[in-house]
Structures are given as structure tokens and as C-alpha cells.
Amino acid sequence: MKTLTRLAICIAIMIQGHAYSQSGSMVEIRGGEFIPLYGTKTEVPVGDFLMDVYPVTNAEFLEFVEQNPRWRKSQVKQLFADENYLRSWKNDLAFGSEDLPNSPVTNVSWFAAKNYCECQGKRLPTVDEWEYVAMANETSPDARSEKSYNQYILSWYETPTTFKNTVGNTFKNYWGVYDLHGLVWEWTSDFNSVMIGGESRQDSTGDNNLFCGAAAVGATDLMNYAAFMRYAFRGSVKARYAVKNLGFRCVRDIEKTNL
Amino acid sequence: MKNFKHSKKKLVYVFFLAALVVGVFTSCDKAVAAKENPELMKVYGESEAEMTAPPMVPRPVGKRAATKLIVNMEVVEKEMEMSDGVSYVYWTFDGTVPGSFIRTRVGDEVEFHLKNHPDSKLPHNIDLHAVTGPGGGAESSFVAPGHEAVFTFKTMNPGLYVYHCATAPVGMHIANGMYGLILVEPEGGLEPVDKEYYVMQGDFYTEGENGERGLQAFSMQKAVDEDADYVVFNGKVGGLTGDNALTAKVGETVRLFVGNGGPNLVSSFHVIGEIFDKVYVEGGSLINENIQTTLIPAGGAAIVEFKVEVPGNLVLVDHSIFRAFNKGALGILKVEGEENKKVYGGKIEEKVYNPGVSAAEVTEEETEDAPVANTSLAEKMERGKQIYTQNCLACHQATGNGIPNAFPPLAGSDYLNADVHRAIEVVKFGLTGEIEVNGNVYNSAMPKQNISDEDVANVLTYVYNNWGNNKTEVTAEMVKKAK
């Protein structure tokens, strides 16, 4: 009987452990073409790739800094992270009392996020890849024209302190990916390739044709507003910035294996 | 000889005058140059700007010289009350809507520190309409959460200016409350007044209709349609009423710095019960006088000044009046002090207006020569009660006790019982001036009552046979005699 109980506990622990490692799991995204927000007239191709189901958590990042001392709070180079880096962490190897193990890690710089992914044999997604997956809702790969989809995103923008939530509590999208909307912003490898300057109104009318008409477009198109704010956010950060509402996840290219 | 001496003296005078004139002109030239070129104004010292939450404003600049002024401002996204039981996530400058009031003078070198709270979800920036430069500073102040942007500018033009966030999507940032006012005073400061306040209008768009309880999300669709659920002063319904009401004392001059953050609606700013003695049109240098309602565009401002002469509640409204009474654009300026009857006499009477009565009077006049039927006391009392209710009750009250200090009592009235003929004359011809009733002095006016002689008799009989009066029965003949 006792052994049975022990076995049961053991199995329970294993299941839990499995659940944790689930956050490191990936799903396949079938590539395609889409027209992103930034107003190019032509479709942008996106190849097939694997994407993390969840953003990287505090627990996962702790493991990473344990193995990589140079990314510890006290040892990180100022060139690669500003003073907000892991700001809430108690010390090099313990996150803050309010940080849950299964909450997304935030206050990490782009350099740190990039290196984390590389150490896993992965990389950060490009803006186009991220946006491509993020245009899905529960049932459709491109829900951008649906009012409820946009309303969900806009209302998240207005909900304070969502970074305290745990991963996997938003919706599972068409591809099987969670938390692209509703939890935290996420780093992308080329986050500043599409610049929204400080002067957003000029971006839409000036010589920056990337944003040609973006702010002036039929404002009834809510999609632009939801996406616009993401691009605005990306435009406001630099690679060494560590921001409380900004986390990340990784992707991996699908290797073509010849059988 | 004498003449020569004289002319020599004259010559000296001429030289002296010429020198003086030249001197005056040169110093005048300098002054003009300095005034026209704030760019060339020297700055003296350095100080941190006093920042105030609405409805207060910082101290006037007075005679101080242009200086290097450090402005610290923090962007905070937070949930606050929009109306009773209704909350909203506001995006704010310094935690209030509108944001802190910034007070500068022309020629100041402003060093602006814009800090974005680490908990903020979004990047923000600031476009100050007082800035001469790209984006009004927006370009230089774009700042991510948990960061601070610093930029400088020189105040070139005196006036009252709006500032607001200009990050994409601009409309949404403004609609969530990101605006405020910056004042650039002219050299020497604005003329001192007794009271200064900061009032700013804004329109809000919520998923739920006006009054729907709970946390309300921003509705982009309604904002695009310019279909506001709330139009308010200082960020919420009741932002300037109840405990938040503005105050002043009789005789004081009040200056309101009024802005309109929009994002969409233009304000027809009006103060019920006052006339603006002065309006700095659109917050600029043009002064208009004796204005009832001034237009304040979205993204614009005005300075209004008025002396409050009588006590009472003045009501600030957007005179697009449904906004005031149905959407919240209403504030109170409570004025306390002595009555001033010369300026405002107050209500002197209130009565039923019934055109039917005068029509009846006309027909009765036609039949005046017809024999008057002898009516019984009971009939007279009944008819008298009707007349009283229609013509007298509003002032003298149903109890006949009147209203202290305004309308004298008829119940147990010494004035009434002393002289019935005088009473008939008062009803028939009216009465103005000071009288004493039961030991109290009344100085008011009662108008002539437009009723027939018979009804005068009826109503007086009713009054005399009630409330402890002396039971005199007044007849139509007695009334007819009074001339």
C-alpha cells in the first residue's frame, strides 16, 4: 500500500515535471504569405518554423542564468542590459517574492533573450514571423478582420500588470500557441527594423514610406490600431533595455532532413 | 550780450534734449529687440518647476527673470473613477486628468524630463504646443516603460497651450486622458488676480453606455464615430462638483485657465450666471471683453477672467448643453459673501401663470354692469380659496405664513387686520417698498393682481376668515370704491 502511494506521488511529480517541460515545447507553424501592418503593398513570405508554445518563464530563465553566469544580474555587462535587468530578482539566483516560477520572465534585454534562445539551439522570431502567428485567433489563422479579436488585444493593452499572470492562461490559437496577446510584449530579432519614431504622425506622412498612410487609413479598421501599438512599442525600445512588460519566446527552423 | 548768453544756454538745452532722445531711442530699441526675440533673452539661474494637480495652478511668475526651468513629469497608466460605479483605465501625465499644470515665462529654457513608469504597458511621449520644434517635442520625448527622456526647448511665445501624448495611435492616447496645459506668461507676468484655477474638458468613449457600471474599456469605434459617452471637466463626472467645486468670495476676480483635450469635441465654454469680463481668445494675446460663451477647440485653450459680484453657485458648462446635463460637462464655482441686491435682486415673487384667468377677466369686464348676485360667505370662501391657490400661495404659502425675510405672513398679520381698505389697495394696485409685519421689516414688491373686483373681495374674505385673522367680509362694492 505504502509503495503504491509512493508510486502515485512519484508519478504525480513526474506529470508535474512534464507539465513544466511542456512550456519548453514547440509547435509547427506552416509558412505562408501575408501583408503585415507596415503597409507594404506586396505580401511578405514566411517559411515553415517551430515556435515555443509559451513565453520563457522565470523558472526557465533561472536555470539559464545558473548555467550562464555572465547573464546573472550582478555580472551582466552594461552594454548588454540596462539597470532594469531582472530588476525584481532578489539576487543572482533567486527571483522576486512576487514573481511566480510559471510567470513569463520580463525585464530581460534583447541581448539576453537572443543568447537564451541560442543556448537552446533556437533563435528569436523575426517581426514578420511573430506577427504571422499572432494574427490567428482560436479558430482562424488570420482573424485580423474580426472585431472580437481586435477588441481582445485592445482591452489587454488597457489592463494593468498582466505580467504577473502565469503562462498558458490566455487562449490557445489556431497553431496551438498561447499568450501572444494578453500576457506580455515579446522581443523579436529585428524589433527595430520597422521604426515608429517618437513622432508617430510624421511616420505616416513623411519620407518614411514604410508607414505610408498607416495612421491615416480608414480608422474604422481596428486592426491597425492594435498592431500599431505593437510597432510603437518596438520602436520605443533599444536592445539593452529591460522592461517590466516585455518577455520573449524562441523559434527554431525546421531542418530539412534527407531520408 | 544777454541774447547770446541765452542762445548759448538754448544750445546746451538742445544738445541735452538730443542726447536724451537718442538715449531713449537706443534703450527703447533694445527693449523692443528683447521682446521680439525671446531667443536672445538671457536666463538667470536654475530652478525646478512647481507642478500642480488640477484644479490648482502654480504660483505666478511675477517679475522673475527668464530662467532654466527643470520640469519633471511621470507617465502613469492607472484605473480611476469615471463616474459613480464606473471606472476606466486612464493614461495620465503625473497621475491626474488633466496632467500637472506647467507654468513658465517667455524666454525660459525648459529642461523637460519625461519618465514612463516601469509598470506602463506602452511607450509614450509629449507634444507641447508651446514648443517651437518638430512634433512639439514628441520626437525627442518618446520613451519606453521604465525609462526617462530628457529634452530642452525655449519658450518663444506667451500664451496658454495644450500638451498631449502623440504616440501611435494618437487618438487613443488622448482619449485615455493624456493631456494638460502649459502656460507661458509674458515678461512681467499676467496681471495678478484673486483666484486662479485649472479646468480642462475631455470626451471619453466607453464600451458600455453612459452610466453602465464596472470597469469600462475604451471603444475605438465610438471614438472614430465621435459618439462620446462622457464629456467631462477634469477627467470625470463630478470632477468639479461637490467636494471638488471651485470657490471664491464676492468681490474677487477669478481667472480660469481652460483647456480642451478633446480628442474630438469642441467646447462652447460658458459659466451660467457670469459674463467673462475678459477672454484671452484661444489662449493668445488678443483680449476680448464681455463674453458670454467662448469657443475652445480640441487641442486649444482660453483664459477667462471675471469678477464675482454676488454670492451663489456659478455653473461651468459646455453649452452644447446635452453634454452638460447628460454627459457630465458641468462644474460648480461656489461664491460666498454678502448679497448685492443692486446687481441681482433675487426672486421677488413667483406665481401661477394662467392666461385663462385674464381671458376670463375680459369677459367679466364686459358684464361688469350686470347686477352682482349676492353670494353667500361659503361661496365666497370657496371661490376665494381657488384665487388664493392660483395667485397668492406661491409666495404667501398654503399656511399663510409667507417666507421669512422675503414674503410677509398673512396669518395673524397685524398689518392686514389693521386696515381692510389698505389691504384691498395692495391686492388691487400692488405694493412696493418697506413695510413692517408682526415686528419684521419686509422690503420687496408685490405686483398688482389681475383679477376682478369680485375676486379681490373673495380672496380677501378667504384670507380674513382664516389663520386667526379678524373675520372681515369684503364685498365687491368695497373693492370697487378703492381707486
From TrEMBL, chain A:
InterPro entries in the record: CTDL_fold (IPR016187), Sulfatase_Mod_Factor_Kinase (IPR051043), SUMF_dom (IPR005532), SUMF_sf (IPR042095)
Ranges of residues in domain Sulfatase-modifying factor enzyme-like: 26-252
Organism whose genome encodes this protein: Salinimicrobium profundisediminis
This protein's name: Formylglycine-generating enzyme family protein
Gene3D superfamilies from the UniProt entry: paralog of FGE (formylglycine-generating enzyme) (3.90.1580.10)
Pfam families per record: FGE-sulfatase
Domain of life according to the entry: Bacteria
Molecular functions per Gene Ontology: formylglycine-generating oxidase activity
UniProtKB/TrEMBL annotation, chain B:
Residue span, Cytochrome c domain: 379-467
UniProt binding sites for Cu cation 1: H124, H129, H164, C165, M178, H319
SUPFAM superfamilies: Cupredoxins, Cytochrome c
InterPro entries linked: Cu-oxidase-like_N, Cupredoxin, Cyt_c-like_dom, Cyt_c-like_dom_sf, Cytochrome_c-type_DH, NO2-reductase_Cu
Stretches assigned to coiled coil: none
Reactions accelerated catalytically: nitric oxide + Fe(III)-[cytochrome c] + H2O = Fe(II)-[cytochrome c] + nitrite + 2 H(+)
Cofactor: Cu(+); Cu(2+)
EC number: 1.7.2.1
UniProt xrefs under Gene3D superfamilies: Cupredoxins - blue copper proteins, Cytochrome c-like domain
Presence of the UniProt keyword Oxidoreductase in the record: yes
PROSITE patterns, alphabetized: CYTC, PROKAR_LIPOPROTEIN
Binding residues annotated for Cu cation 2, in chain numbering: H173
Signal peptide interval: 1-33
Example GO molecular function: copper ion binding
Any Pfam family the entry gives: Cu-oxidase_3
Main enzyme class: oxidoreductase
Transmembrane segments: none
NCBIfam families xref list: Cu_nitrite_red
Subunit structure: Homotrimer.
Sequence similarity: Belongs to the multicopper oxidase family.
Protein name per the record: Copper-containing nitrite reductase
Species in which this protein is naturally found: Salinimicrobium profundisediminis
